[in-house]
Amino acid sequence: MTLVPEKVNSEIVKADLTGGYMITGEVVSEEDKGWRVGLGLSKDHGLEGVDGWVTTAEAKKSGSDLLPGQIVRAVISAVTAGGRVMQLSVNQDLIAESQISEVSTVGSLLPGHQVSALITSVDGAGLNVQVCGFYEGTLDLAHLEITEDDIEDQFKVGKKVRPSPI
Questions:
Q1: CB 19 within 8 A of CB 77
Q2: 75-111, pLDDT tens digit by residue?
Q3: N- or C-end of the chain: fewer Cβ atoms within 10 A?
Q4: Where are the beta strands (DSSP E) in 18-116?
Q5: Residue 166, Cβ neighbours under 10 Å: how many?
Q6: Euclidean distance between CA atoms 22 and 59, whole angstroms
């Protein structure tokens, strides 16, 4: 396992770098009005030279002290400068609430992302779901906090379910 941005973010594609996307980066340097954050995005996906930026005001508002070399989880709040700079938020509440419903490629779905899931079938044991159109899985009845009698009333095929914020 690693947190090195060049390895973690190597498969992310540009189309998925939008507001609300959670990403891991490394604080590269402190500048006059904030911090430059290296995202380790791949030149193979047309993202060479794309960096993150956390303003001093954002860091103070979030109560974060950033240091060069520090690994940070952040949420993209805006894409600026022709897509070359990702304005980042290090607000832990925003990070905890960020969710992904779709991605262009499976490589843009990273560990730690919260996802919504499409219900593909409902039975007494739980739900069968599809995540981001790539993965299929099950949600066991024990994790849904309802009884077997209530499952078909509360969950319908074709609806999306989302986890509660952490």
A1: yes
A2: 999 988 677 899 999 999 999 888 887 888 888 888 8
A3: N
A4: 22-31, 34-38, 51-55, 71-80, 85-89, 99-100, 114-115
A5: 9
A6: 16
* Tokens coding 58: 């954002």
Counted residue by residue, the chain has a size of 166
- What pairing do the DSSP bridges indicate for beta strands 51-55 and 85-89? parallel
Angle at 7 between CA 5 and CA 11, to 5 degrees: 100
Nearest partner of 67 among 36, 41, 94, 22, judged by Cα: 36
CA distances (Å), origin 51, targets 29, 39, 75, 121, 155: 11, 6, 13, 41, 41
pLDDT at 166: 42
Which pTM was predicted? 0.80
What is the tens place of the pLDDT at every residue in 34-44? 999 999 998 88
Q: In the chain, what's the furthest Cα-to-Cα distance?
A: 60
Amino acid at 54: V
Q: What is the mean pLDDT of residues 56-83?
A: 90
Assess contact for 98 and 75: CB atoms under 8 A. yes
Neighbours of 21 (CB within 10 A): 20
∠ CA 108-89-68, nearest 5°, is 90
